[in-house]
């Protein structure tokens, strides 16, 4: 039987029963901002400012957690780098962009049923206190979390990375204070003024201490986190990755489905199948840093462009590996371009170091990619795709037994 030949124990390690929710959100925040130097770490800096304001307001632990988590992914609805740049303008925010990305972000986050309040916080995070907003909500009808994120977002947008930060404090405080009662909740301005007097607050923003502070705070967010919760996060990530191009609009979900099907046919239990599916949804996380023009290029990639593409699986591994408790999911997800003969990328891992989960993901990714339209070619037929995969097996690149399972399932 195939399962006996493949040794079930070599599949890998399942995720832990408890995880830090903050780890997932900090990693997702990093992925959303990475690749564009103008917004690098924007969301994490906003989350740090939110955390400081929440502490001064003495918010309860649960409310603070909800607001900081929302801050980490508040711009999840922004798709392109051009729109990210527009969103950084200080007090000339594009109203159409503000409305569209708030609504899109809220719709995405609504999938996270274990954090039901995040969607509403993100929906209103660009609402001005005095009104004129897209749904006529104003004043204290705007959720407190949205008001705090809006203030923190505009504070961060004013910081000029090219100038010494303490030389900017007076002008930033002046600009923010001038918008009290119009853009911002007037009750929050004295809180910010008190915070702004602390040099440490500004220096933490400049010296990247905010990352350490957020992770320290995140230790308080460890909670029971089942596979359903993790799959909801992974589904959101897959949507973010695949929305970049119509040619990859279902790639991650397709890889996840095929990988779970292979795992089922190999006899792995429902939890193992689900974990493999989650890895499939995460597998192209690193593509969030690849420029759209390369992903959607119609012609053959140049050597330089291909080298840029190669970094995506490296960053998938590095980002997922920061999340404590994911078990073997980082390896399953990130090693999908590794090959048994060691010729894959980016780690050049050979068959002795590739567990069954990683081998399943490699076959699933190749098959799904071959049967999708791409800018430079039409999708291959299933029979042609299988032929290509079998050729790769004969070259010592893919696992024969897993290919047999795939063929039997088609």
From TrEMBL:
Source species: Halanaerobium salsuginis
Domain HD: 39-158
Pfam families, A to Z: HD_5
InterPro entries documented for this protein: HD/PDEase_dom, HD_domain, HD_GYP_dom, HDIG_dom
Record protein name field: HDIG domain-containing protein
UniProt cross-references to SMART domains, sorted A to Z: HDc
Residues annotated as domain HD-GYP: 17-208, 226-410
